[in-house]
Amino acid sequence: MLVAIQGIPGSFHHQVALNCFGKNAEIKGFRTFEEVAKSLSRGEAEFGVMAIENSIAGAILPNYELIDRYGLYIFDEYYLPISHNLMCQEGQTIHQIQEVRSHPMALLQCKQFFEQYPHISLIDDVDTATVAKRIAEEKLKGVAAIASKTAKEIYGLQFLAEDIQTVQHNFTRFILLQKDQPTQDFVPNKASLKVTIQHQKGSLANLLILMSEHDMDLSKIQSIPVIDNPWHYAFFIDAQFHSYLLYQQAIEKIKAQGSDVKIFGEYCSRK
């Protein structure tokens, strides 16, 4: 089994892949989320792990677009509590650090911590664990990373501070992906959809009412413009439901109203 992730050993994606697929899984890291999507669409990887939203920073909309464009299928989700930790080469104090590098979302989630250290510059980088690895390999001084505790162990760094995220109850939702819809031996209670509605007055209101009438609880709705049709919009929707039959009836009625529905995945909620 080959599992595609964005990032390297020690990244949060790597941690989720280990938790979901086990230590015997072959995990291949890619530089970007699009490379992960391509590897799945080409059949080079069997499964993929992709962050889709964070409880503080919100949805990662470009990843929804990748799922749509590459025709991938969501078969499960995973919620990971995020622990951000400040680390550097051994023998330094935080007052000797001039730069902290990490993924932009990690920097955003720890911004309040650094208000007490105005001498430190916060610099966007490609990935949390990649910075930790670079500091270790190049023996960088005056530079620190925000990364996981696993990354600290893998790359032999020292902690300057632990759990520096502004909100301690910080979770990232990851989705598990594959190329084709699997054969299911369970009844799902959650779905991820893309709904493109008619450009008419009340279309969105009618959609929401219909879903509510069929006992669908929207946990997320995000609008995106339809690129080849200006001033028309589609919506990425995550919805939970108690009755799979009512959910199916809702989908058919939405289509009957003239909306286009694309199902990204039907699976069991893990929250």
Structure in words:
With 271 residues, the chain is an alpha/beta fold. The protein is built from eight helices and 15 strands. The relative contact order is 0.17.
Q: Termini distance?
A: 26 Å
> Order of SSEs, N→C?
EHEHEEHEEEHEHEHEEEHEEHE
* Arithmetic mean pLDDT: 94
What would you call the structural class? Answer: alpha/beta
Count of β-strands: 15
Overall geometry comes to: elongated
Rg on CA atoms, Å = 21 Å
Query: Can you count the helices?
Result: 8
* Helix fraction by DSSP (H/I, runs of at least 4): 25-40%
Write the layout of secondary structure elements.
Layout: E1 2-6, H1 12-21, E2 26-30, H2 33-41, E3 47-54, E4 58-59, H3 61-69, E5 73-81, E6 85-88, E7 99-102, H4 104-109, E8 121-124, H5 128-138, E9 143-147, H6 149-155, E10 158-161, E11 171-178, E12 190-196, H7 203-213, E13 216-225, E14 233-241, H8 244-256, E15 260-267
Parallel strand pairs: 1-2, 1-3, 7-8, 7-9
Antiparallel strand pairs: 3-4, 3-11, 5-11, 6-9, 6-10, 12-14, 12-15, 13-14
